[in-house]
Write a structure and sequence with these properties.
alpha/beta, 10 helices, 273 residues, 41% helix, four-stranded parallel β-sheet
């Protein structure tokens, strides 16, 4: 039975699909963990990265450690799993409490040469009462975008949205933004702010024209980490040295040009069949 060009083309297509599937699984097994501090980042970062990098293709797995207080436990747990040798990018709010948690983890030896970190935002935006200049997830966006997304009927009730101008008249961009919105809304009878934080995060990520500098930097970090720790094909393994099968002595001696009769010259032992 003869083989047609269609058969050859089909076999090649199937082979290509197989290789793609193998490498996709390898990328997942050789993943990069991207630790995020909360649900807001977990929901927003995939949206922000959509037109910048392909997280799935790079084998990036987002893991929410659910607050800076849980970072230590998350890192200790990771060390006990089969993924203990995978690189981890830890993102955290650029606020005093989160920074303190990260420094505590470093002192306890939970950061290794496979650990990378990024503060959100990377540039200081607000000043805390202790004097630290930094911010949190919401402050990583331009203030105008933040206000547009907050005063949205899907985030705040219409009676509060209508009072945006009143809020803007007292809004201080140099102090934590969310705390100001929370107080303003509470004074008007709305206390369910925490239930809206994830929805706000999705709006912020979806409404901005291009990712803010913090997330462009994050994309660079992800690409750099993947370059340092590339995905290796499952078949790319080093076979054991078996004399005459996978390891062959030099036919010519580097000293006199004669055939070698003593096996390898590098002092390594070989398995004799």
């Amino acid at each position: 039975m003869s083989t047609s060009w269609e058969d050859v083309a089909r076999d090649m297509a199937i082979s290509d699909l197989h290789q793609e599937a193998v490498m996709a699984r390898a990328a997942l097994e050789q993943c990069i963990f991207l630790f995020v501090e909360g649900e807001s980042e977990e929901a927003a970062i995939p949206i922000l990265m959509t037109d910048v990098i392909d997280l799935d293709a790079l084998g990036v797995k987002i893991a929410n450690y659910n607050g800076h207080g849980n970072l230590r436990a998350a890192l200790r747990l990771l060390k006990l799993t089969l993924s203990h040798n995978r690189p981890v990018i830890i993102t955290y709010d650029n606020d005093p409490a989160s920074i303190e948690s990260v420094e505590r983890c470093k002192k306890q030896g939970l950061f290794t040469d496979l650990t990378y970190e990024l503060r959100i935002p990377i540039e200081p935006v607000v000043t805390y009462t202790c004097g630290h200049c930094g911010g949190s997830f919401e402050e990583s966006f331009p203030p105008g975008v933040f206000l547009d997304c907050v005063f949205n009927k899907d985030i705040l009730p219409p009676n509060i949205c209508s009072k945006r101008s009143s809020f803007e008249s007292v809004f201080d961009q140099s102090t934590p933004w969310v705390a100001q919105v929370r107080r303003f809304a509470a004074d008007l009878g709305f206390t369910d702010w925490d239930a809206k934080k994830v929805s706000l995060a999705k709006y912020l990520a979806g409404e901005i024209d291009e990712p803010p500098v913090t997330y462009r930097k994050l994309a660079e970090v992800v690409k750099t980490v993947r370059e340092k720790h590339p995905v290796v094909h499952p078949d790319d393994v080093e076979l054991p040295k078996v004399y005459g099968l996978t390891c062959f002595p030099d036919k010519k001696s580097p000293n006199n040009g004669l055939e070698s009769t003593t096996g390898p010259q590098d002092g390594t032992a070989e398995t004799q069949p």
